[in-house]
């Protein structure tokens, strides 16, 4: 009788069982660990070596292990959240970029800084943004969309946390001006960067919400050349993309509410 195609290889079963024993137990030796896992010592040694090389475990003494960098990285909820956001939003933003012939971004707030997770539609590398790059949040459309929807105590802490440097003559640099701008963003549903981080660069951004909480934002670069523009003309298409992302995130709501 053949094995079902869904049955995991026996070596995978053994590795996973040994990994659980290694992380949950406290054994005096590798022999004791192998015995508890029901494996020959040579098999346990080979599997443990593989798990260690892959970064799933780190030995701290004979027979005792802790979770390694790979396992810790995979277990971090913020990384899982970002991974899901990118996988879901990337094709939607790619479509929006094609239809508007504009650069699109997805960003999140991390320790008061705005982090780019996605950049679409910049084959010639016009924009300064890069995937994984961080910028000050107060002077970017994405960052202001995220800051405006922070819980009020955290938002007030941010506004009182330090000096806001003027990067251009258009940058908002006082807590009062930023607070008023955040109020406007919450009323209108969109944030603007009107040459606040670079002369000539104009962006519009909208939040991504899940269960009433803003977890990310998307933006569209209206122009990088300056001149008269109406970023609000792109609001409907940008908001439609945000709604599509929010709907596709719904099955992951429990995981992303951590």
Fold and architecture overview:
The chain has 258 residues and is of the alpha+beta class. It has helices spanning 10-24, 30-37, 41-53, 69-75, 77-100, 141-148, 152-159, 175-188, 235-249, 253-256, and strands spanning 57-61, 64-67, 103-110, 113-120, 134-136, 191-194, 202-210, 213-223. A six-stranded antiparallel β-sheet has the order 5-4-3-8-7-6, with helices on both faces. The protein starts with 9 loop residues before the first helix and ends with a helix. Residues 1-8 have low confidence and may be disordered.
How would you summarize what this structure contains?
By secondary structure, the chain is an alpha+beta fold.
The number of helical segments is: 10
Number of strands: 8
Order of helices and strands: HHHEEHHEEEHHHEEEHH
The main β sheet shows up as:
6 strands, antiparallel
Q: In what order do the strands lie side by side in the largest sheet?
A: 5-4-3-8-7-6
Portion in beta strands: 15-25%
Shape estimate:
elongated
Distance between the termini: 45 Å
- Low-confidence residue ranges: 1-8
